[in-house]
């Protein structure tokens, strides 16, 4: 999933920003103290890569709302983000929510001060089936049944049985509402016609197969997702959220990084302010790429030994 836009509200000095569109490279331009840093911090706290980005009500809540938020359940939203899903993600959500892929290409994710998330699919399309598509199919099949040439092994009684069944199915689709129960009843009527010994070359067999496949293929379109499936779809989006990294002092690293010192400093608790800032930045970097300094050091030693 890819971030496309975000909006910040009720966060530090920001009451409510406009929607900010995101591209491969996006620059925020403004005067000092205009709120650029606060916009980025809010975005960072949607899903920070490290614990440094945890929500802190004391520093993140607007002063005028602090007392109110502290006394409440902290369900106030401070960041809204629009994401575009890739094809696989949209397909997975479509199966869970039982709605067409086309309306699931975008999702909106919000985060609250209590750490909770809300997930919405603003363009989701309800699965509505028109009875007319079934009426047209059944009408055409009744016409075919009346006019088809029977095989020598078939008789008019079989034709009449098909006509009776298809007329019963046609009556089911006189209502404009097509629901799961109606489709299942039509499938049941068709199954009463099934004959495993029926010739594959029979035109009646072809009519049966075409109709059965058509109705069955639309059955999933009228199924409603369970509350568990809806929750799974929201949980899936949260699991796929990208992690955000924010640097407030990205120029504090040395031009060269000596790994033995890095490993030692990561374990120390008595560093000064300057060295602590370096360690903090390095820790975020290593966490982000999911690597440990010791692993890189050991890898370098192994390669050196192999060369000798």
Brief synopsis:
The protein is α+β, with helices and mostly antiparallel strands. It has helices at 36-44, 57-60, 63-71, 87-97, 131-147, 156-172, 180-191, 203-219, 227-240, 259-267, 273-288, 293-307; strands spanning 2-11, 14-16, 20-21, 77-84, 106-112, 117-120. A hairpin with a 2-residue loop joins strand 1 and strand 2.
Describe this structure in words.
Keywords: Endonuclease, Hydrolase, Nuclease. This is OLD family endonuclease. Residues 1-233 form the Endonuclease GajA/Old nuclease/RecF-like AAA domain. Pfam families: AAA_15. InterPro entries: AAA_GajA/Old/RecF-like, P-loop_NTPase. The chain has 308 residues and is α+β, with helices and mostly antiparallel strands. The protein folds into three domains: 2-127 and 227-240, Rossmann fold, CATH 3.40.50; 131-222, no CATH class; 259-307, no CATH class. It is built from twelve helices and six strands. Strands 1, 2, 3, 4, 5 and 6 form a six-stranded antiparallel beta sheet that branches. A hairpin with a 4-residue loop joins strand 5 and strand 6. The radius of gyration is 31 Å and the shape is elongated.
Order of helices and strands: EEEHHHEHEEHHHHHHHH
Text of the CATH class of the largest domain: Alpha Beta
- What is the helix content? 40-55%
Q: Which CATH-level-2 architecture of the largest domain?
A: 3-Layer(aba) Sandwich
Spans where pLDDT lies below 50 across 5 or more residues: none
- What CATH calls the topology of the largest domain is Rossmann fold
| Beta-strand residue percentage | 5-15%
The number of domains is 3
Shape: elongated
Oligomer: single chain
Number of strands: 6
């Amino acid at each position: 999933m890819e971030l496309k836009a975000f909006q910040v509200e009720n966060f530090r000095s920001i009451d409510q920003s406009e929607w900010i569109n995101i591209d491969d490279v996006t620059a925020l331009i403004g005067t000092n103290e205009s709120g650029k840093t606060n916009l980025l911090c809010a975005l960072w706290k949607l899903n920070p890569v490290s614990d440094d980005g945890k929500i802190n009500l004391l520093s993140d809540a607007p002063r005028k709302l602090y007392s109110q938020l502290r006394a409440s359940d902290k369900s106030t939203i401070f960041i809204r983000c629009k994401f575009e899903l890739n094809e696989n993600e949209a397909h997975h959500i479509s199966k869970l929510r039982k709605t067409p892929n086309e309306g699931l290409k975008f999702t909106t994710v919000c985060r609250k001060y209590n750490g909770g998330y809300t997930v919405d699919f603003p363009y989701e399309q309800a699965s509505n089936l028109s009875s007319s598509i079934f009426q047209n199919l059944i009408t055409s099949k009744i016409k075919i049944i009346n006019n088809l040439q029977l095989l020598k092994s078939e008789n008019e009684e079989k034709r009449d049985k098909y006509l009776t069944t298809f007329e019963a199915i046609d009556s089911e689709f006189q209502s404009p509402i097509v629901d799961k129960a109606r489709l299942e009843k039509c499938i049941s009527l068709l199954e009463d016609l099934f004959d495993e010994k029926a010739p594959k070359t029979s035109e009646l067999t072809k009519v049966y197969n075409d109709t059965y496949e058509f109705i069955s293929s639309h059955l999933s379109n009228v199924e409603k997702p369970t509350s568990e499936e809806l929750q799974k779809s929201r949980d899936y989006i949260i699991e796929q959220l990208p992690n955000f990294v924010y640097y407030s002092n990205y120029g504090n690293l040395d031009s060269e990084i000596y790994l033995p010192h890095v490993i030692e400093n990561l374990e120390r608790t008595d560093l000064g302010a300057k060295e602590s800032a370096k360690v903090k930045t390095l820790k975020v970097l290593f966490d982000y790429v999911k690597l440990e300094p010791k692993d890189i050091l050991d890898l370098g030693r192994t390669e050196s030994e192999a060369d000798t």
